[in-house]
Amino acid sequence: MAHQQPSDTRRIGVVAIIVHDPDNAYDALNKILHEYSKVIIGRLGLPYRERNLSIISLIVDGSTDEVGAMTGRIGQLAGVTVKSAFAKEQLKIKN
Length: 95
Description:
Distance between the termini: 28 Å
Shape: elongated
Low-confidence stretches: none
Number of strands: 4
CATH topology: Alpha-Beta Plaits
């Protein structure tokens, strides 16, 4: 499960997920996303019915270890492709 990290070790990023067979992969994928909900700050999912695909984009705020653990688990699911990218610099939080 994801753990909240101090803000100085966390980074903003995006995760792109393509689900090639949504009917078979959604339950396992949603379970993983729920386990890492503390690092997910936004989610957009689009069905692409003509190709039997779903495309999901996530905005994340977490450590590279947390996001890497999440994407590693997602990448092990059959019929799922995942990629992530982070902002180059850690962002300062204004108080």
